[in-house]
Amino acid sequence: MATTVIVAVLVGCLALVIAWVVRSDRQNKRRIKELATMLGAVSSGTGGGGVCDGLAYRFTYSAGSNHNPSALKVSIDSPVGQPFQIVREGRAERLSKRIGLSAEIQTGAPTFDDELYIETDAVESTRTLLMHDDAREAVRAIFGLGFTAVRHEGRRLQAVWSPFKLRDDIDPSLITGAVAPLATLARQMPAVPGPSRQLAIPVAMGVIPAGIVMLMALPILAAVGMRFRPLDGGAVFRDSLHHSIPALVVWLALAVVFLRGRSTAHKQLTFVTIASAVVFVLGGNSLETIINGWADAGPPSSHEEQVIRTYSSSGRSTTYHVLVTSWRRPRQTENLVVSSGEYHTAQSHPHITVVTKPGRLGFEWIVSYALAGATR
Known about the structure:
- The protein has 376 residues and is an alpha+beta fold.
- The chain has three domains: 2-188, no CATH class; 201-294, no CATH class; 301-375, CATH 2.40.50.
- Helix 5 packs antiparallel against helix 6, helix 8 runs parallel beside helix 10 (265-294) and helix 9 packs antiparallel against helix 10.
- Strands 1-2-3-4-8-7-5-6 form an eight-stranded antiparallel beta sheet. A six-stranded antiparallel beta sheet has the order 11-10-9-12-13-14.
- The protein contains eleven helices and 14 strands.
- It is 47% helix and 23% strand.
- The relative contact order is 0.09.
């Protein structure tokens, strides 16, 4: 009965979440359609396209997700120019510049330079653009409307407001008000983009993909390491830190050297630091586990032991444990992680045979274990 009630509650909660998401999506589509109608634009589900003072524009809205906040974007075509992003300058940007990690374009206009932060690798072309008074005033006008970023991506200029709450009372002038300043920026774009000043960019651009590749390799290392599970996993983890922490420090030092001087260095280094900490600590543990087992040339040993008790622990999934008498330490136990079927079999069978090997690095690991009716 209790299980039935729990399942019913979970299903009910899931149904409520789905209903809320569907209702919210319908409301957003309705609001976008109404906004497009007020603008005289053509609605297209997530946005719309229209013409303002003879200039074609498009607006889009995304409701956001766990990792991406909601956003309203107003954009126009701008085939000339290299990528850049302008955001409000915050504490992180100021600190990064103060310690010499990141470098930003300075336009010579103190108010503009103090309030806004320019992110780009196309230093010369973006500097040329923002040296024009009209261009700087256009950017300030967009931020004055409430937008949080100005971007040039590919062949489009965008005014971005994120996070953005789409309401019924949104003023259409918010959309059209961003079009004219965007058009001013587009007209001021340098006809021939200037070269990037940062010679280390090709090397620096490899740091981020390297971190992503390492993150992708982590589950593979963990899966292989499961084949050579040591009896003292905690001891292996602590020993691996003697190697993984120094390697992490060296890698982060190299990342600082390669990323330093870019306008986005502080953001990229934050990602690299978090990702690398996970990869080097967990990956180092898995790698030491693999070396300890794969390179082990020692003879296997068989141990006939008694099952003391069984128990399960719950997290994202249920883990099943079997405690058996220890062959290594008198009056102690060994904790074996088993499958669900082996767990239930162990409850009715008092003895188990465990085969182990000494380990290349001295950490004894489990080759196999056997219960009546189940073998691993």
